[in-house]
């Protein structure tokens, strides 16, 4: 009897391994087939969908794509919401409402919600669950539910080369300069100058760079050492192991 029980357990384990492999292979195929690219846009008809840009599957809520321009080589992770207009089916005029320049990365679960124009500069990277909106609820009338009052909208502009940390919120009217760092969880409104680091809610500048003085306050860590040109992956691994020794 123990021998039969062991045989049954081994067979069950083998079946579970086979099922697990089949599920993972199937899910990999679904993700590849469901991704949106310029060659395979599916049902989505963006105003522009640049070469090399990819929207991972499953996508979040996407509507108003006729007023959304995505540049070249952008990475849109899973469950990212891209919306132009308050609701589907509106005519938003001749100009784009959401514009992502080349090389923009939107992390998993992020939202870009636009009624007024939102533009994100080239090579700006966003961590997971970043929220960027040009529309905000108003609460002027104390007798009406906030969600039923007409929202206010102001354009949002994010410069090139920025980094927005996990959970950052960019509010209507925000204008971020070049190479701005937004700390995780920061809530940004108003204007942020070039080469600044902002943190907090509401966000404030905690560090800035200028050509004369460098970073102020000074950085607490040494600058990263650039990787030499022409090294193979094996040589890089050997250097890493040498540094750990």
From TrEMBL:
Pfam family membership, one: Hexapep
Keywords, comma-separated and alphabetical: Acyltransferase, Repeat, Transferase
GO MF annotation list: acyltransferase activity
Repeat as UniProt keyword: yes
Source organism superkingdom: Bacteria
PANTHER family: ACETYLTRANSFERASE C18B11.09C-RELATED, SIALIC ACID SYNTHASE-RELATED
Family statement: Belongs to the transferase hexapeptide repeat family.
Name the UniProt record assigns to this protein: Acyltransferase
Organism: Streptomyces pyxinae
């Amino acid at each position: 009897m123990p021998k039969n029980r062991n045989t049954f357990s081994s067979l069950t384990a083998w079946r579970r391994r086979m099922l697990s492999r089949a599920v993972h292979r199937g899910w990999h195929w679904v993700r590849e087939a469901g991704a949106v690219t310029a060659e395979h846009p599916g049902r989505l008809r963006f105003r522009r969908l640049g070469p090399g840009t990819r929207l991972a599957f499953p996508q979040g809520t996407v509507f108003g794509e006729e007023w959304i321009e995505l540049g070249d080589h952008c990475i849109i992770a899973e469950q990212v919401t891209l919306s132009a207009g308050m609701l589907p089916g509106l005519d938003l005029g001749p100009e784009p409402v959401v514009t992502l320049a080349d090389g923009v990365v939107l992390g998993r679960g992020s939202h870009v919600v636009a009624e007024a124009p939102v533009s994100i500069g080239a090579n700006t990277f966003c961590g997971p669950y970043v929220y960027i909106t040009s529309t905000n609820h108003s609460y002027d009338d104390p007798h009406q539910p906030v969600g039923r009052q007409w929202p206010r909208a102001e354009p949002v502009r994010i410069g090139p080369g920025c980094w927005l940390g996990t959970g950052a919120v960019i509010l209507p009217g925000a204008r971020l300069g070049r190479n701005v760092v937004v700390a995780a969880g920061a809530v940004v409104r108003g204007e942020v100058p070039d080469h600044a680091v902002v943190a907090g809610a509401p966000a404030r500048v905690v560090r800035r760079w200028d050509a004369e003085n460098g970073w102020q306050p000074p950085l607490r860590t040494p600058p990263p050492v650039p990787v030499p040109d022409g090294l193979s992956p094996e040589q890089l691994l050997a250097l890493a192991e040498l540094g750990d020794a």
